[in-house]
Amino acid sequence: MSKRIVVDPVTRIEGHLRVEADIENGKIVDAYSSGTMVRLLEEILRGRDPRDAWAFVGRVCGVCTSTHSLTSVRCVEDALGIEVPPNAELVRNLMHCVLYMHDHVVHFYHLHAMDWVDVVAALKADPKKTSELAQSISKWPKSSPGYFADIQTRIQKFVESGQLGIFANGYWGHPAYKLPAEVNLIGLAHYLEALDWQKEIVKVQAIFGGKNPHPNYLVGGMACSINLDDVSGINAERLAFIHQLLKEGKEFINQVYIPDLMAIASFYKDWGAIGGGLGNYLVYGDLPTKGYRDTASYKFPSGAILNKDISKVYEVDLRKEDEVQEFITNSWYDYEGEGGKAKGLHPWKGESKINYTGPKPPFEHLDTSKEYSYLKTPRWKGNAMEVGPLARVLVGYAKGVEEYKAIVDKTLKDLDVPVTALFSTLGRTAARGLEAVLAADWALEFYDSLIANIKAGDTRMAEMSKFDPATWPKEALGVGHAEAPRGALAHWINIKDEKIANYQLVVPTTWNASPRDGKGQMSAYEAALIDTPVHDETQPLEIIRTIHSFDPCMACSVHLYDEDGKTISRVSVVGD
Amino acid sequence: MDNDMLEVKKQPTYYEEVIRKGYDRRDFMKFASMMAAFIGLEKSAIGQVAKAMETKSRIPIIWLHFQECTCCSESFIRSSHPMVADILLDMVSLDYTETLMAASGAQAEKSLKDTMKKYKGEYILCVEGSVPVAADGVYCMIGGKTSMHILEEAAADAKAIIAWGSCASNGCVQSAKPNPTQATPIHKLITGKPIIKVPGCPPIGEVMAGVIVHLLTFGTIPELDRVGRPKAFYSKRVHDSCYRRPYFDAGLFVETFDDENAKKGYCLYKVGCKGPSTYNACGVMKWNGGVSYPIQSGHGCIGCSEENFWDNGRLYERASAFAGFGIESDADTIGKVALGATLVAVAGHAVATNIGKQKSIHDLETEGKASEHELPS
User: Fold this and answer.
1) Total Cβ atoms within 10 A of residue A518
2) CA distance to partner chain B, nearest, from residue A396 (Å)
């Protein structure tokens, strides 16, 4: 007889995620993933100016900030046939690489590390041995015995104060923690260093986009004009600043993040056989080097892999109505018209009417035999797909792209694990680190290209000839895609009479965290949890390890529109 | 509120904590000076800030997340001074925040309950996100409870509430028309508690840090304007503190993005800048450690700290579309202006939001005119 456990809230993620899991003989035998917050942004977008959409959808998420804005301007440019100048594409790529560098580091240290690193156990470490270990894996200068002793003293006093703040009620001492005390101390020290570091690298986004989180984008290019002779423009000082930030960012990734990732992973090789899940992977591709429309030029190649078979990569077409479809069998929505709730819809025809049928709160359990989430269920040619760093690394590797081959093979060799270890919780976490390395390299390449372009006399940053709505066709369809840090992201727009007639987003966490479909096929989170060992049913440590390996972003995944706002009852509010 | 309202007994002081963490007195004074500057104090008050931080106690914080995108938390950790992240993450005892806390599920809920019980009447409640009140609150549920329910429970014994960002202050993007989930800001749901609104999408990291430092330094909430925002950061229009303002006054405008005028850094008013109607500190403090702010990077202000900014006209439409904003003809036709036009703009906005500001800006203009006479001719 299995026992149902609930993890809600799942913390150290973006947004509101609930997991219910059935445990039998110390293993998960069934799992349900539920998104429990919704904002209905797609309804809010209807009737608005398509050029403004990037600002609205940018606010879908402040963690993977800039991704939705980038996807939105691409979507509108696709609909209106606008090609942005090369400099704008390079600036967008640079900002996107910086997002990867920032987001992957923050995920590893601040959202994921405490699943592997026992903060309290770090107090038992010998600072001298810690220093020796740190210096054996990296040339990062902050590695003296004194440095680690100071960190340890600070944390010792913190623990003794009795006010544990964010560390309170953690799973410290749980037998699933396997690191030697010294590795725990390195992890803890770098948790604090990374907190300081992360605010620096995003300055690249602030220089081009004015601020971070939520930098500004522009349909047609970017608003940050180049003028080497004016203090307001992108000039030599701004470029030098960016170059320095990129170099420092790369240094941190290569000398802190990667050595830590490898050191920690080497003690958790058993997680190379846990949390694999679907074995189907989907990538839309990103980081164009010869224009957004030339998909063969992408640094992140697109494609789909089925059943862990990396000998074959399938083409993906976001415009074909039978490829990407969204289902709502187990979601709190209805579809109108023929086929009703059973049908799947391509996003250009996407619709939904919110209809909460779950238990009346407060409740203990969801009824998972019927609708149980605000997420819809996307499918690619009917298949449940995993998206994200692992999918991207696998598609690059399977396509034989040299950069991927080199870094993946080296990592497998260093860890002494087979290629099948990639299909796992550990594989997902490792893949994220590998693409942070690639993104840091690529950022410097894009920087060099930008300099070369300016040097050659091209200072154009925006193509404004189709900015005026009077130049637009009466009706236009567009699709824009990106690879968000968390996976494949696309927006579909229908423009009519200069306004948004329909705007649909299918986002990474919707692919990964959605409820099962009408055929009973699980999505990625649920599938990955099956067979995960759970040592203590009252402590969900192993569950959050696998869930965190996906880096959930729930605000992204629940954004859908309400076809009929009038059905929503109004509750009187206190005050004015 | 009395002056010691925010004290928590028997906790180490900030100064003790800073020293314990291996920083020296000089670091501490640097931090205190910076915070004094952020919260808009005279130089003479630095000592007061430092003294207060040496002697006041730690404050437990419960940070709730409702209908939001976590940009406020992200901005908070961007706060630029090297010591801010350490101090604000550890020193204030951030006992509950879904973004950073180690514990999940039942253990996370325990942290919340423990803090509410142990520090009854003493903790600060920070709220990130709006609360959907449609359909009995089912559009945001955590641990099987609605956000409305959780907010009411956590607010009951809070000493004060900080409404982070535009979501908690104004409703932000999910409350834009037609506001399908009836996303509602905190002050419309909770009464009888001091509420500090810190709008912006997100607010500047150092503004968030500055508000917290004010609370713990002075033991009082900062002086708020008529709509509940700290005057220190929200009493000036972006337009009034804009380094491109001389181009506005001279009638020199960007006509379209990336044109010759854009490359020269002219005023962005004609391509939709909402700086003339937005009260925020962006032009003074800038973003991400003072690196830039939207106007400096060539895009107009979108007005993200103003109520209903998503419905206050399109992004690339001139601010003239605002009710009572009679500035457009001047911008088009007048080469050298524009004290008169500015005053009209000020008055128009003041009618809409805050009549008190008109007087203060008028006083500033008078003061400026008076000092002109002192300049050698």
Assistant:
1) 15
2) 31
In A104-155, which ranges are E strands? none
Q: Report the pLDDT value the prediction gives residue A253, as an integer from 0 to 100.
A: 98
Are A196 and B257 inside 8 Å of each other by CB? no
Report the distance separating Cα A447 and Cα A87, nearest Å: 10
Interface A–B counts its CB contacts (< 8 A) at 345
How confident is the model over B237-261, as pLDDT tens digits? Answer: 999 999 999 999 999 999 999 999 9
B44 CA to chain A: closest CA distance, Å? 30
Nearest beta carbon to residue A39 from set B67, B137, B190: B67
Does residue A572 surpass a pLDDT of 60? no
Pairwise CB contact (< 8 Å): A361 & B138: yes
> Are the CB atoms for A533 and A12 separated by under 8 Å?
no
The domains of chain B, with CATH numbers, are 14-232 (3.40.50.700), 245-372 (4.10.480.10)
Amino acid at A170: G
Contacts of B228 in chain A (CB under 8 A): none
Q: Mean of the per-residue pLDDT values for chain B?
A: 81
A37–B144: do the CB atoms touch at under 8 Å?
no
Write out the two tokens for A119. Answer: 């903060």
- Tell me the per-residue pLDDT of A408-419, one tens digit each, with 9 for 90 and over: 999 999 999 999
Per-residue pLDDT, A556: 73
Length of chain B in terms of residues written:
377
The pLDDT-based confidence of B216 (bands split at 50, 70, 90) is: confident
Give me the helix-helix angle, B25-38 and B46-55, nearest 10°: 120
> Taking CB atoms and an 8 Å limit, are A232 and B244 in contact across chains?
yes
Is pLDDT at A551 greater than 60 in this prediction? yes
B358 touches B350 (CB < 8 A): yes
pLDDT for B100 equals 92
Pick A568's closest partner by Cβ from B20, B180, B184: B180
Contact yes or no for A16 and B142 at CB 8 A: yes
Contacts 24+ apart (CB under 8 A), A411-420: A411/A262, A414/A262, A415/A262, A415/A265, A415/A266, A415/A269, A417/A269, A417/A272, A419/A310, A420/A308
- The alpha carbon of residue B11 is apart from the nearest alpha carbon of chain A, in Å, by 8
Could you give the CA distance from residue A528 to residue A139 in angstroms, rounded to a whole number?
36
Please report where in the chains the tokens 């128009």 appear, as a residue. B348
Residue of A nearest to B180 (CA): A565
Which stretches of A151-198 are assigned E, i.e. beta strand?
Answer: none
Residue A353: name the closest of A38, A49, A15 by CA: A38
| CA distances, A253 to each of A67, A100, A440, B60, B75 (Å) | 21, 11, 8, 34, 22
Domain A3-322+381-567: top CATH class: mainly alpha
> Residue B89: is its pLDDT beyond 90?
no
Q: Does B246 touch chain A if contact means CB atoms closer than 8 Å? A: no
Q: Which residues of B touch A105 (CB under 8 A)?
A: none
Name the minimum distance, in Å, from the CA of A222 to any CA of chain B.
8
Which residue from A minimizes the CA distance to B183?
Answer: A39
3-class DSSP assignment, residue B315: coil
Residues of chain B with C-beta less than 8 angstroms from the C-beta of A219: none
Which residues, 6 or more positions from B28, have their beta carbon under 8 angstroms from its beta carbon?
B15, B18, B19, B50, B53
- Amino acid A127 reads P
Residue from the list B68, B104, B133 with its beta carbon closest to the beta carbon of A571: B133
Nearest partner of A316 among A307, A327, A306, A324, judged by Cα? A324
Residue A460's pLDDT is: 98
- What tens digit of pLDDT does each residue of A445-471 get? 999 999 999 999 999 999 999 999 999
Yes or no, beta carbons of B75 and A540 under 8 Å apart: no
**A15-19, A252-256, A378-382, B38-42 — which is least confidently predicted?**
B38-42
Averaged pLDDT of chain A: 94
